[in-house]
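Table S2 (continued). Query chain:
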Amino acid sequence: MDTREINPWTWQDGFGFAHAREVTGATRVLTLSGQCATDATGAPQHPGDMALAVANPGEVLA
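Corresponding output:
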């Protein structure tokens, strides 16, 4: 089994996480970290944040 971190950006390096991790071996598994900016009620924190949260996983998968 092999693993590969997928980070299309570098800002996460200071936080110690990967946007995605690919696991290959007998099967292929890809896990994604959460991509969201909401308050306690689920409302977006800033205009446009939810569009970016939806777009970011697409960039990771690309």
